[in-house]
Structures are given as C-alpha cells and as structure tokens.
C-alpha cells in the first residue's frame, strides 16, 4: 500500500455528493448507478494485480508504493462505488490520466479529494 495523495470517485452525471467532517463522501449517492460494462472493464485493466475481497474488486499497482482501484458491488451485483487512490510516488501520471479519460469518454463524472498523508 502506497502513500496515496489523491482519491478519485466515479459518480453519476449531475450528482453532487456530500462530504463528512473527514472529507469522505457520505450517503448512498451511487446506489442504482448503472455504470457501463465497458467502463468497468477499462478500469479493471488499469492496474495489474487483482486482490478481490468481500464484494469488492480491488486492483493494485506493481509498485510497493503504488496506486489502487476499488470497485464496490451491491448485493445484487450492481456497481455501488468506484474509487481510485492514486500514488504519484509509485505510479506515473499516465495511470491517473487513463482513469480520468475512461470517465470522460463514457460521460461519467468524477470527484476527488486530496488524501491525508
């Protein structure tokens, strides 16, 4: 696990999620969000090391100090949340650019926050 500096979330178009006092997004703002299969496939391909757990598909960088992507699923299999923790100390900026490009090409918005160090 790396020193993550930025955490990005994919969110439905037009959504303005709320943040709690720690800066984390709160509420069920992604419930029922239909994320196109092509977006999920491209996101899964961004980082090479899959480490699934529970209802989460997690993909990690090859770098010890690298980034990760987490795709959280509802009980019915729908995507509930997609978050990327980008670590510039472990991965090139191209990883972050590809994540943003996937969202932009499919019309999906993203929100970000600077992670605590």
Give an overview in words.
This protein has 117 residues and is an alpha+beta fold. The protein has a single domain, classed as TATA-Binding Protein. Helices cover 18% and strands 32% of the residues. The longest helix is centred in the last third of the chain and has 13 residues, at 93-105. It is globular and about 30 Å long.
How would you concisely characterize the structure shown here?
With 117 residues, the chain is an alpha+beta fold.
Set down the secondary structure blueprint:
Layout: E1 6-11, E2 18-19, E3 25-26, H1 37-44, E4 49-50, E5 56-60, E6 68-73, E7 79-86, H2 93-105, E8 109-114
Antiparallel strand pairs: 1-7, 1-8, 2-3, 4-5, 5-6, 6-7
Features:
18% helix; 117 residues; single chain; TATA-Binding Protein; 32% strand; 8 strands; globular; six-stranded antiparallel β-sheet
| Main sheet makeup | 6 strands, antiparallel
What is the strand content?
Answer: 25-35%
**Quaternary assembly:** single chain
Q: Total strand count, please?
A: 8
Average predicted local confidence, pLDDT: 79
**What's the CATH C level?**
Alpha Beta
CATH architecture: 2-Layer Sandwich
């Amino acid at each position: 696990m790396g020193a993550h500096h930025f955490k990005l979330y994919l969110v439905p178009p037009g959504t303005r999620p709320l943040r709690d006092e720690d800066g984390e997004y709160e509420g069920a703002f992604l419930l029922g969000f239909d994320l196109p299969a092509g977006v999920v496939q491209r996101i899964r391909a961004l980082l090479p090391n899959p480490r699934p757990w529970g209802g989460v598909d997690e993909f990690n960088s090859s770098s010890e100090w690298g980034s990760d992507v987490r795709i959280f699923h509802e009980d019915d299999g729908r995507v509930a949340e997609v978050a990327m923790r980008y670590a510039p100390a472990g991965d090139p900026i191209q990883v972050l650019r590809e994540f943003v490009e996937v969202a932009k090409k499919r019309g999906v918005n993203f929100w970000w926050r600077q992670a605590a160090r």
